[in-house]
Design a protein that fits this description.
Helices cover 13% and strands 26% of the residues. Strand 4 (81-88) and strand 5 (95-106) form a beta hairpin. The chain is built from 4 helices and 8 strands. The relative contact order is 0.24. The structure holds a DNA duplex.
DNA sequence: ACCGGGATGTTCT
DNA sequence: GAACATCCCGGTG
């Protein structure tokens, strides 16, 4: 099962984030005995992407984005929330895929304990900060190696293929770079970010 | 269901 | 001082 499966290879991440992102749909993120199937992601394409943290160059906060790929980039936002990305591309390209929503698979009791405000299980991981809360990811996991066999945070394949026709839309919550269509999701999944379940673009 | 506002503090201008 | 890759709660329909 997911908890013992092998992580994705390093070559999986060493591609453009816009190519990695749809391939991450239906993969499984595993941490601390909990597992969830990724159903919504966004690509951030480095120093040329006005919506990316890397757009204004390297800072202490975004250093993990600049490589190597296959690491977890975890950042703090709005004074209280953590969000997690998989670093992609070549070293220095500063690309990443934001993990926006997931379907809880395993360790639901622990997730409920970490997210007491979640009324239903579909509220456990239905947003980037909720996902981090439910899985117990925070700043201490920034830079974690996703590729290492014995690593604490892993992204694994359990045999479920990504959707043949993923839903696509603009990215959520941005003031700049909001026109780019760099969000992918599993159409109709109940765990998507609330208010974004409509498929805006096909293909 | 949908909408509006407040929480909360790091980061960079 | 402003912005911020968000979430939650309490209103209304």
């Amino acid at each position: 099962m997911p908890v013992t499966a092998r992580p994705l290879a390093g070559s999986f991440y060493r591609r453009d984030a816009a190519d990695v992102a749809p391939d991450l749909l239906n993969k499984v993120i595993v941490h601390a005995g909990r597992a969830a199937r990724i159903v919504e992601v966004e690509a951030y394409r480095g120093v040329d992407d006005p919506g990316s943290h890397a757009y204004r160059g390297r800072t202490p906060r975004n250093a993990t984005m600049f490589g190597p790929p296959g690491r977890l980039y975890v950042y703090f936002v709005y004074g209280m929330h953590w969000c997690a990305n998989a670093v992609c591309g070549d070293d220095g390209e500063a690309m990443a895929v934001l993990l926006r929503a997931a379907a809880p698979l395993r360790g639901l009791e622990a997730m409920r304990a970490l997210r007491p405000s979640a009324r239903r299980d579909r509220d456990l991981c239905s947003g980037p900060a909720k996902l981090c809360q439910a899985l117990g990811l925070d700043g201490s996991h920034d830079g974690a190696d996703l590729v290492a066999p014995g690593g604490g945070v892993r992204i694994v394949a359990d045999g479920t293929a990504p959707p043949t026709e993923p839903g696509r839309s603009a990215r959520v919550g941005l003031s700049t770079g909001a026109d780019l269509v760099l969000r992918w999701f599993v159409p109709g999944d109940p765990n998507l970010t609330p208010g974004t379940k409509v498929m805006l673009i096909r293909g």
